[in-house]
Fold:
Amino acid sequence: MKPNTQQLTELTTQVRRDILRMVHAVNSGHPGGSLGCAEYLVSLYQAIMNRKETFSMDGEGEDLFFLSNGHISPVFYSVLARSGYFPVAELATFRKLNTRLQGHPCTHDKLPGVRMASGSLGQGLSVGIGAAQAKKLNKDEHLVYVLLGDGELQEGQNWEAMMYASANKVDNLIATVDLNGKQIDGPTEDVLNLGSMKAKFEAFDWTVIEIKEGNSIEAILKGYEQAKALTKQGKPVCVLLHTEMGNGVDFMMGTHAWHGKAPNDAQLEEALTQNPETSFGDY
Amino acid sequence: MKKYTNTGSKDTRSGFGAGLTELGQKNESVVALCADLIGSLKMDDFKKNHPERFFQVGIAEANMIGIAAGMTIGGKIPFTGTFANFSTGRVYDQIRQSVAYSEKNVKICASHAGLTLGEDGATHQILEDIGLMKMLPGMTVINTCDYNQTKAATLAIAEYDGPVYLRFGRPVVPNFMPENEKFEIGKAVLLQEGKDVTIVATGHLVWEALLAAETLEAKGISAEVINIHTIKPLDEEAILRSVAKTGCVVTAEEHNFLGGLGESVARVLALNNPLPQEFVAVQDTFGESGTPDELMEKYGLKAANIVEKAEVVINRKFKR
Structure:
């Protein structure tokens, strides 16, 4: 049974608490983008993807997800743990010595749920395309999902990959762009304006849909139903997911300041007050 | 009595092509990716026979490495093909994160390595690739010496689970390794026994080393010749066993003397049995246009240079 919207909302709140507490505990990490993607990743793992209970690296017979913008590892780790891939208690080891939860995700400590390292930006779409093409060779009908940051699209490899995916009809792929409009140095439009992402992806012959309310679970579920229906039609599918960096914590929203900064004790308390503990419980 | 003879000169890259063709037939998991250099890499046969397992990525090497990494997740064994420069330096970060750090079973196959690509000049040559690849944790680095060995290595790396850098060249060189000799990753091949000096060579300089050994023999110097086709993991035992007998070593490679085989051998000696060593390699400079033979001569990579260094290193041994 897939969870209903209320359960997803509750889990998202718990994931927010995880993110804030993980980053606070080591005074490092990336809360802003993580919070902005909480609804998306919770919905993806709990309701959208068709995945197996247990983890295998080859992911045969299930949908796959690749995180390209690896710095939002807090939300990724929290959602993986809360989806049963590894003990939730392990979130307490985030970024600490000898942890499997490296600052940016890696595979070589065999953390279940992670199939590629990411952190150096711009590489995830290519990997997703390769996995999608392998699925086709294996006659595996499942889909491949990739999450890309918008700032990350400034890396040229993405455009090589976009060109390739449409030219080769990689139509079992849904790439999501987290359009929060912010990167370390400021608004993306100030750092290096990306212009119309819709026009750009369409010019590269992708099917594009937009989810304007990227922090609404209902809008996300509806949008990805539509995105899934558009796969297997000869074109790769792009979802432009409009999110709010720092979502769910009022003082972290509307600014790029929390891209890579941890809250202090008082700020953590305030942020947690805005996201009270749920029935899922803190780690 | 010559143990190894030139059975007909061929290009090493054709050995790669022949190996890949054979793999296409016998290993369904093998896929091939190429960045607009099918002819140069001799991937035509594989493409023709297995179009569904061949992927033309265009002039986009970074994407090629990423796609290859992704395909391993579906259980494929990807072989990527382009020139050595574009196989390594251009995509170092992609290889580092998506292949080596992620422990993906990608075979990075690189043609036109070293100077002997020739007339295209320094932009298309590379003398740093062995260093770049051997510094990556978990990466196996192979540099084959002739057609037969390149073919055997191509077959062998498909059976090995892990990232591999396979380096070979463009020019036609003597084919002297026995046909169908099994290729063992990490196992040096002792080509000729000797007692005065060890010559440790890799790539097509192995042939130059054999020629040098003949010249040395005529001068009354007995040289041991070792073919190091795997630079990482290095067969340290084979090297130490030989130098324990000869007391000195010359390394020979078509690579910068910084970061190549020579430095790997020097490390082994420093840690175990410090002995005189001389380097036949490019002296920390870029290449230039010229015929392969002219470049070998100008940059000091010929048999005559190995002979000269052997005499120097033997003298150093006796001065100790």
